[in-house]
Amino acid sequence: LLLCLSAHSVPNTLLNARYQEMVQLQAREIKDLRAITDKLLATLQEIRAMSDEQKIVQKILTMIQGDYIEKPDFALKSIGAAIDFEHTSATYSCSKARSYWNWFRLWDFAHSPEVILEPNVTPGNCWPFLGHHGQVVIRLARKIYLTNVTIQHIPKAVSLSGNLNAAPKDFAVYGVDDTGEDVFLGAFVFQADSALQTFDLKNKHAKPFGSIKLKITSNWGHPRFTCLYRVRAHGTMGEPETTAC
């Protein structure tokens, strides 16, 4: 009889141990969930305490990290696009400011025009040129039939100066063929209050181009320079070149 009772007590002991283990596991999970909930509530309270302007800035900073133009960009440096420096305006620089920074052994504040071929659109990461007349010629990563160009600037909410008067305004787009001839593809106006704008080009399927020229003729009021943040070129791949056998 004692052996029989002992045999029955072993499974019961194991069941009790297993039950206690499950209870402890669930208790830990509940504790973790409470910690996550408390953290979420604290974040919500912080958001509620933020001003409307802070909320807008936070939203914009989140948005500019993404890419909302669902088109291939053939003016992207990482895939082979490059600046034709010979036919591009000189970079604006202030000698006093440059001497000041170099004295502290820091880099020159004026960026190369190559910066417009990169996706990093953050305040100050732009190419400045003197005045409000300037141009840039981009050698595309591939020869394409151009269809659109996209111009991007920072939003006013994240501008350190509080305005966008250095943004480009009136500009024209040209396709540049293998002989160096410019083909007019349209004149447009960049609205500074909209950070990301895509423009449909004229003569879309005239012929493929290996380079594109952006000629800016005015800005939104800055007296000394114009800043260009990013330029994208969209289109379809041209027919592959054939060689005689």
Element order: H for helix, E for strand: HHEHEEEEEEEE
| CATH top level assignment of the largest domain | Mainly Beta
How much β-strand is present in the residues? 25-35%
Low-confidence stretches: 96-108, 240-245
Instruction: State Rg.
Output: 30 Å
Per CATH, what is the topology of the largest domain? Jelly Rolls
Span from first to last CA? Answer: 101 Å
Mean pLDDT, nearest integer? 81
Q: How many helical stretches?
A: 3
Task: Count structural domains.
Answer: 2
- Report the major sheet: 7 strands, antiparallel
Report the principal-axis shape.
Answer: elongated
Give the full name of the CATH homologous superfamily of the largest domain.
Galactose-binding domain-like
Q: What is the chains' assembly state?
A: single chain
Number of strands: 9
Which CATH architecture of the largest domain would you pick? Sandwich
Descriptive report:
The radius of gyration is 30 Å and the shape is elongated. The protein has two domains: 47 residues; 154 residues, Jelly Rolls, CATH 2.60.120. The protein is built from three helices and nine strands; from the N terminus they run ααβαββββββββ. Strands 1, 3, 4, 5, 6, 7 and 9 form a seven-stranded antiparallel β-sheet that branches. Strands 2-8 form a two-stranded antiparallel sheet. It has 245 residues and is of the alpha+beta class.
List keywords for this structure.
245 residues; seven-stranded antiparallel β-sheet; two-stranded antiparallel sheet; Jelly Rolls; 2 domains; alpha+beta
Please sum up the structure shown:
The protein is of the alpha+beta class and 245 residues long. It has helices at residues 2-49, 52-63, 95-103; strands at residues 82-83, 127-130, 134-152, 170-176, 182-189, 196-200, 209-216, 225-228, 230-237.
